[in-house]
Write a structure and sequence with these properties.
266 residues; alpha/beta; Rossmann fold; ten-stranded mixed beta sheet; disordered N terminus
Length: 266
Amino acid sequence: MLSHLARAGRGLNDLGAAAVAHARLASGRTLRFSGAFPSREAALASLPTSDRAAYDQDDVADVAYSVMCQVAPWDYPVLYWLSRITTEAGRLSLLDAGGHLGTKYTAFAAHLQMEQFDWHVWDLPAILRQARNWQEAGKLPAEIRFDDSPADAGPVDVLLASGLMQYIDKPLGDLVADMAAPPKWIVLNKVAVRPGDAIVTLEKIGPAKVPYQIRSEAEWAAEMSSLDYAIADAWDIPGLGHRIPTHPWLGESRSRGYVLERVTGI
């Protein structure tokens, strides 16, 4: 009897959540997140053909650029670790994967000794086109090198991926394999995870809707443990979890950061 009541209670909760989601849709408000899909391909297939270019679009490249050039509260663990690594190792080469228009370089310039870094940025072709145009026009620091692939950066000491894992459609191990050599350090930030199965939603960014991946917490932990790295640090980022307005019954995601150090002797 109790199990029947529990199932009935969950059913009522789901109905209530569905009613709230329907009301939000009916209001005509633009939602930042919408839909829940089992894969990136399924998420893109739900869009009109003309809207399936995802994030690799010229009119998305500089969306929120000025905001992204500011240090946010969740950047401080990254700043701490980059400062600590440079203190221990001296000059470093770093690949900022998904580094947009060099926004982290600009944001961190007031907090790190940037002359200690050879800073490389890899991103999508549309963003790299914009970055090179701006750099040529003097709008971006000349010290940043923009690379067409992770391997083009050459062997680096640090892989930085802040806010990338939600948008990249490959495991972390495949990203590392795409590099010229495995880096000693991997610094990840704003990784979206949830209990249960992984899901992909659609995020509204400027004029586009792009797939946004929320990884399974258990699968993500297994993925990291399968690599030749040890977790040196991990942290939660309060306030960056998301509940999909169209699917509120799926619960809220968590946003996490990690520092991985390559295990020596492998």
